[in-house]
Amino acid sequence: MGPVELLHMSVFSQSFSPCGRFLAAGNNYGEIAVFSLSSALSPEASEISQKPILTFTAHEGPVFSLLSTDTHLLSAGNGEISAWSWTELTKRNTKAVWTRRPQYKSSLEIPEINAMVINPRENSLAVGGGDNNIHIMDLESGVFKSVLQGHSDYVHCLSIREREGEILSGGEDGTVRIWDYRTGQTVHSIEVYKYEDCARPQYGKWISCLTTDAEWMLCGGGPSLSLWHLRSLSPTSVFPLSGCQRQAAFYQDLILSVGEGQFVSHCLMSGEVKSLIPCTPPSLNTLAINTNSTEHRVLTVGGSSDQIDVFTNLSYRAFSLSF
Amino acid sequence: MSPSMFNFNEAKDKFTAATRNALDNKTSKPFLTIFNQLPGNETEKKTTLDQALRGVLEGEIVKKKNSCDDFLSLIYLSIDGVTEGICSATTPFLLLGDVLDCLPLDQCDKIFTFVEENVSTWKSNSFYSAGKNYLLRMCNDLLRRLSKSQNTVFCGRIQLFLARLFPLSEKSGLNLQSQFNLDNVTVFNKNEQESTLGQKHTEEKEEGMEEGEMGDEDEPAPCSIPIDYNLYRKFWTLQDYFRNPVQCYDKFSWMTFLKYSDETLAVFKSYKLDDTQASKRKLEELRTAGGEHVYFAKFLTSEKLMDLQLSDSSFRRHILLQYLILFQYLKGQVKFKSSSCVLNDDQTLWMEDTTKLVYQLLREIPPDGDKFATMVEHILNTEENWNSWKNEGCPSFVKERPADTKPARPTRKRQAPEDFLGKGPDRKIFMGNDELTRLWNLNHDNMEACKSDNREFMPTLEEFFEEAIEQADPANMVEDEYKVVRNSNYGWRALRLLSRRSPHFFQPTNQQFKSLADYLESMVIKLAKELPKDLPSEEIKTGEEDDDDNGDTLLKESNDSPGIQNKLVSNQQMDEIAAKLGGQWKTLAVQLEMKAVEVREIETDSEDVDMQAKLLLVAWQDREGSQATVENLVSALSAAGFPKIAEILSDT
């Protein structure tokens, strides 16, 4: 990787290994890098431990989405989904276990896959992407069971509410659709941009970030990041963050959000922004919290830089991993 | 009758008995009586009593009583003894020392309370000088026995007592050379082997803490939270710089300090503390619980505490304050800093920027960040005063009584000796020196002396000019070059004399004299006329006549019309012409061939046109000199177109 490539690199996705000791990150060149968190966090960490233990090209196009199951790492890029075994990866073996692609209407265009989410109950994978549809694939058989159609523009993000059996999707058309995956029908469709509190017409209406936590949903993008109560389907708080948010997460009693802006925003449920923690990349795309391991419980963020910032204490950047 | 011998042992026993008696009966009367009764001189008795008292104390201590009251009463007794004068002043202190050495710490506390209460006694004149060293040693011994973190309050009391006892400038209490406590090393885990995490293994099990993965007994158990070792190490390394600020002057150490400081302060900046209500409640709970505040003399440097410490506002305040104190030292003037300890410009600049950042961070720390920051700034400013006090060698603060406040006795006005002032019989004023006296006494009154005739040094006109007058007589046929008026010295003196005595000197004359000699000659002639006619008249006559003739001829000449033309323009004439000319002087100026510069000068010199005209004529006269004749002026005027004025001039 020459310096120019490094300069133009963007990290789009991250995923932690099931044991919590490794981090996989995907960038815009279609590469996936695996970092060892245990060595980076150890007392005698050095420059080398902040470099990946393994980098390989996974797809032709950018890796927009990464997801880990109990044993495998799923990566999506260029209209296809590949699965890699974590154990193999740690042994530096970069052979994909399988690669599948959903059935697209036309074989000419290859829509990118923006988001993937797993439904553990049914052991199925839902992918949403550029063809405005959400495809559901059965992980055991590898068969694409159903297609959820409804969005009029491409799907940005997916989220799942296991208990209710609902998939939520946010799209470029500005709607958040709640699907019942069994029936494949849209249960609700929320047009976020129509709500005055959240709407920011100067940015647009797309929804680029979506996450749910029991009763609550966070969504944002063109409109401001807002917290919605799902029962009543109404926004309870709107967060006064300046840029467009690309990923948000609930963590303990905080809301962490990243997007345009060289900082990680910490917000409270009440709607106030508690703090903005500065970080390296000028604009952030992805945020991940390692809940799989207590001793490596770090927050990592990546964006339009080859550096991935690691926070051991949420309030300041400890160090950076680099591609 | 010879005084009976002083028997030491007997005396000592008697004293001992008396002391016990006094103790039991709680009165010191028998004590005193015994003392007075015993034979022997004062010193002997005193020293014996001291010994006796110490012996009694020893006995009491050995008895191992639980209460210290007996000891205290014995010491009171000794104090009474000192005030009565039967006991030497050092005894109470010796007794105190003995007691404190022999008792366990909890009882020492009580004894010390006694010491504290009687601080006024110790400071009184009879005790202070004898006892201060003993007290100092006693307190230091106590301090050495105590632990700063366990017995904080007791240590504090001792220190406070010492502060009250000794004056501020007491040298033993001052760090005159501004040395640092280099032993105050902060220990932290520099590498994994030293990690205390493994040692905490069993403790954690007991506390039932949640563990990630439990390893074997041999392996150090991994901690359950991620640790930023990088920050941890850099942070605690900073403490070394605070411990020994002189390191900062070394370039390499400074670079490290700079780097680590920047990182640490960046973390502080990014990690803002919130002013949560919860923390306030916790503080109040702590206080109400009545728990003892534990004082940590040293930082706790376990890695696991790092996160908690970073989120604690008091901890942050400690660290930021350390920075400020360090910067003050580095910037300040300290007498004992070696000359190599100077900061260069970059370092000074960095220090200033960082000081601003530190204050900003201090202000952001809740609760009451602003107040704290202003308070800190104020305290550091007052520190400067103490610093300069130290630099001066810690002068005493006690103001010396100025010596002249002694009541001024009214001094008797003594009569000056009459002789001295010249009021004595011989009316001589003594100047203290024979010569001066002689001189002074020539004439007492200065004014009179100045008026006396023999101070008249100026000659009369007749005397001075006698010779000149003689020479002026043409009959004498004195040649010009031999005339005394040609002598420049004579001439100068002549002028001076004329100016003092002769009115002729001040009479304006139109005559232009080519030299001083000529002028003097004419003056001489004038004088000769006035002088009393002692001198042979013929000489004068001829001179006079000639002169007269000359004068007459001169006068005549001035009346003749042809003579007029040669006559120089007089002042009066110039005034008249100027008045007549008025504003038209410029045309005349052209005719008189005045340069433009001069014309401009005249214009600026005066506003009045008459004046300007006058100035023009004067300038013309100056330029022409002897050619400034009436004839020339008349022709100029006619040519300029002022025929009338020309006529007037001609007529005069």
Can you walk me through this structure?
- The complex is a heterodimer of chains A (323) and B (652).
- Chain A has 323 residues and is mainly β.
- Helix content of chain A is 5%, strand content 50%.
- Chain A has helices at 3-7, 37-41, 86-90; strands spanning 11-16, 22-27, 31-36, 54-57, 63-68, 72-77, 80-85, 98-100, 113-119, 124-129, 133-138, 144-149, 155-161, 166-171, 175-180, 185-191, 207-213, 216-221, 226-229, 234-238, 245-251, 254-259, 263-268, 273-278, 284-289, 299-303, 307-311, 319-322.
- In chain A, strands 1-2-3-4 form a four-stranded antiparallel sheet. Chain A has a four-stranded antiparallel sheet with strand order 5-6-7-8. A four-stranded antiparallel sheet of chain A has the order 9-10-11-12, with no helix packed on it.
- Chain A is globular, with a radius of gyration of 19 Å.
- The N and C termini of chain A lie close together (9 Å).
- The mean pLDDT of chain A is 90.
- By secondary structure, chain B is mainly alpha-helical.
- Chain B has helices at residues 8-25, 29-37, 42-62, 69-84, 91-102, 105-117, 119-123, 125-145, 152-165, 200-207, 229-243, 251-270, 277-288, 306-310, 313-331, 345-364, 369-391, 418-421, 434-440, 446-451, 461-472, 488-501, 516-530, 537-559, 561-566, 571-581, 585-591, 596-605, 609-624, 630-640, 643-651.
- In chain B, helix 3 (42-62) runs antiparallel to helix 4.
- The longest helix of chain B has 23 residues, at 369-391.
- Chain B is elongated, with a radius of gyration of 56 Å.
- The N and C termini of chain B lie far apart (139 Å).
- The model of chain B is unreliable at 196-221 and 535-563 (pLDDT under 50).
- Chain B: One of its GO terms (cellular component) is THO complex part of transcription export complex.
- Chain B: This is Death domain-containing protein.
